[in-house]
Amino acid sequence: MRRAAAVWAGKATGALSRISRLGGGTTLPGDVARAIDPDVLRKLSRDLKQGAIVITGTNGKTTTARLLSWLLEGAGHTVVSNRAGANLIFGATAAALERAGADGRLDADWGVFEIDEASLERAVEEIQPRAAIVLNLFRDQLDRYGELETIAKRIEKALARLPETSRAVLNADDPRVAEIGLNLDRKPFWFGLDDPTVALQELPHAADARTCPHCGASLVFDAVYVGHDGVYRCPNGDFARPAPDLAASHIELNGFDSLSMGVSGVRIELPLGGLYNCYNALAAFAAGTQLGLEPAFIADRFRSFRAAFGRQERLEAKGRHLNLVLSKNPAGFNETLRTAIDLAGGKYLLIGLNDQRADGTDVSWIWDVDFERLRERAKLVVPAGNRANDLAVRLKYAGVDAAPPESDPSRALDALIDGTPEGETAHLLCTYTAMLDLRAELVRRGWAKPYWET
Amino acid sequence: MARHRKTFTVGWLYPDLMNIYGDRGNILTLLKRAEWRDYESRLFELGRGNAKRMDEVDIFFFGGGQDREQALVYADLLETKQQPLERAVASGASVLAVCGGYQLLGHYYQTGDGERFPGIGLIDVRTEAGKRRFIGDVVVDAGLIDLQPTTLVGFENHSGRTYLGPKAKPLGRVRMGFGNNGEDRTEGCLQGGVLGTYLHGSLLPKNPHLADHLIRSALRRRGIMDLAPLNDATEFAAHEKILSRAQRF
Question: In terms of CATH architecture, what is A311-453?
């Protein structure tokens, strides 16, 4: 009875929120329902016929969740998923509510939930997932999450409490994630990249967590793929990257357009760009096979995938191609910059930096992003967002000749369109709320659909 | 005419471990601002086990780290860095220490359980763990004589409470934010050539006048008294952005 009341109150809140245009109704219904019945997510999760998968990590949660949902749906399953990047426990609850029926019950086969790093413990306890994926642990929003170490310990605690029959699916290439996995009683399923041709020569400035957990020595990297993710070992032999159970090799990257790689004897081709998406695809592949999907089916299904809101979203504006890429922390930004400049040959960019709570109120991290990459290669760089002035300083010290900073989203967009020749592609790399602000302006101009319709 | 350019050297203590709050911004600002004045900027990365040529350094930078990393640098600081650092400061080098670096240069850091970790005592400050973390924008009215404007802006994120002894002067007083300890409204410290502070953000990019103050102080021992002015409009626009938040405060 209480559960039905909670579900109905939540559903009504979601509908109201969408009608009143307050937002996509992506988390508020969860708040309301949990206030009425704190156990509502636990109960709804039990209704799932096959079970649930939770996905956490600093970067790639949304894309990986979307990839895995895409696979499961392709196999004929119904999937509940918190799609709009609403990854706190309230968001997961709201997603389950939206799909619950009039009787307050959830009629679906699978739940695929992306979970904020700090919410994983509670999510595991309530959802009792069949698998938990940890993608990576990068430095992110120290004002909100605290130190990486604290987050890592909480994730370890959460994984230690996974049900007996569940599997932790972990990125072997991330030293801090590997440390978590090696401490678990049950062996995780490890995934990793195996292709030195796409590796960087040295660690980028944003890299962290590079010391041996046993002797404290700085780790030696034989390959660096993304941030501090790569093939590493302790020089004293106390710690090393675990051998992956599933590896991707022969990687080919085609700008923001596509990637391909060999996994388990099949060729994966995915219409997503960037080396970081190789990890996301590999994680979804790993979880998919753990849940019984065939490699050949996964490869076939990936070919027709479409990206999530603001994650390599393509729009047309006055004859220019716009490419929206969420870039929210140093590791993520370095990868999207690398993809935009080195792989896609991008020359026209808008960089959006906000300091709202969802972005992180401390913007110091922009000094760990290698904006030097833009020097003498980008023809136009528009610093945008409410901290556009800080970006302008960062670009100045990177030796990048940027346009004047423009905090107003409409004027920033004008500057970008005016400075980008027709037929060319402009890349918009933005933090979360800077992306929301720009997207709202794109919607107002009729160039994009509201995000809850995508 | 071939000309031998003057050098300007920054020594970064533990660049791989103590770099948590965009500390690279402080390094880049010092190096670039010297380069723009036709100095040949050099960066010495002083990691664990490396104390080479510390006597050639004009400005040392010591940033913040996570607890795990801070514990790793601790032994090395006492073993290989303390003495050369003391000698360099005695001969007129400057030091900028932020957050964790600031704490480690003081007398000690006392944990919540009362356990004391001695610092290297280069500055007359002590730090005690606090329960609540101080997080947010900071505006400081700085008491430095040659600082124009007199404000400093930044971001703080610390749970340590730092208290100044008689030999250390506060860097300034907080107009917005918590500062050293959230009690006496002081922020940072100045003692000899050492400047300790909780401000990051990064600190120097948005406070180019402070960057120049440090460069000038370090070069004074070589008889260089003047720095050519630069156009800092971009930097001060970012400075103003935070100042305007203090007016609303």
Answer: Alpha-Beta Complex (3.90)
